Amino acid sequence: MIPQEFHRQPGRNCRALSPNPILLKMHDLSLSIAAEPFDSDDARRLIAALDAGLAQLYPPEQRFGPNLKAQQLEGGRGAFLIARDGGRAVGCGAIRVLDPTTAEVKRMYVELDQRGKGVGRAVLAGLEATATELGVRRLVLETGIYQDAALSLYQRAGFLQIDCWGEYASSPTSVCLEKRLV
Q1: How far apart are the first and last CA of the chain?
Q2: Each residue of 126-180: pLDDT tens digit?
Q3: Which long-range contacts (CB under 8 A, 24 or more apart) does 130-133 make?
Q4: Rounded Cα gap, residues 64 and 6, in angstroms
Q5: Which domains does the chain possess?
Q6: Measured by CB atoms within 10 angstroms of the end CB, which terminus of the chain is less buried, N or C?
């Protein structure tokens, strides 16, 4: 079972995240992926689109993303990344640290017209790199049974199914996964 939350203390395996964006050239995209404020205009737009899509698949009691708050990512406890193609925000994802060695992937989303181009894979790689910078050795996540593309992405990235924990344990539509980072 994973503790509800771990608050990083200064000097406790906590480093500043690299301020430089990750730059990738993929298909017809020129992606940059960088940490940005969770409450920025682009973040709010992407999260609203994510929530609208999830609302078509799951009832409110089975949607857990809105439980993530900006303060849970502050002070080395996580990060919110935005993928941009030519300056346009096209995808996002977050990690929040749960304990000294574990972080949870949250709020993964890619705009509909950008899917299948590697944006999700790039965001996930950015989250893994960020987790490593934070000293995390294990990533966990929850996704839903109706999100075939997400499940496929996570499985291709090396995530394995685990028992659900915490608020996800009682959800009949939750699928929980983990990946050990080297």
Answers
A1: 21
A2: 999 999 999 999 999 999 999 999 999 999 999 999 999 998 999 999 999 999 9
A3: 130/17, 130/35, 130/79, 130/81, 130/95, 131/95, 131/103, 131/181, 132/181, 133/15, 133/17, 133/18
A4: 19
A5: 22-136 (3.40.630.30)
A6: C
